[in-house]
Amino acid sequence: MAYWLFKSEPDKWSWDQQVARGDIGEQWDGVRNYLARNNMRAMKLGDLGFFYHSNQGKEIVGIVEVCAEAHPDSTTDDPRWECVDIRAVLPLARPVTLAAVKAEPRLAEMALVTSMRLSVQPVRPEEWKIVCEMGGVDP
Predict the structure, then answer these.
(1) Burial class (CB within 10 angstroms; exposed 0-12, middle 13-18, buried 19+) of 44
(2) Are 91 and 55 in contact (CB under 8 A)?
(3) Domain range 3-134, CATH architecture
(4) Fewer CB within 10 Å: C terminus or N terminus of the chain?
(5) What is the value of pTM for the model shown?
(6) What's the CA gap between 37 and 92, in Å, rounded?
(7) What is the pLDDT of residues 104-113, one digit of tens each?
(8) Which residues contact 109 (CB under 8 A, 6 or more apart)?
């Protein structure tokens, strides 16, 4: 299993909206960055990810699961762009802020710190465990 981080502006798509989609989930569409797209192409069913509110809040608020592997993005006719579907699994007991991630020396190399603009990022297993512990959930 691999781990990921999905960034969303909460005024465009929030954790609450993701939760409301239930087990059906929602496609993670509109991504127009090749590296982020390639990250989605690498995802497998059952991979887990953090749901991160960017711009407003700047915090990891929940855990999602990939429920459909990469497929054409329905928001464009351009065949270069693909997306995955994700479903909400669990809210974090305590949201983990960007400031808290940056303050944790063991997370200094996390993509959220080093590649902040990338909307879909890989998360290393050791980073996953640390952030889960910070968020009050069992990794």
Answers:
(1) exposed
(2) no
(3) Roll (3.10)
(4) N
(5) 0.96
(6) 26
(7) 999 999 999 9
(8) none
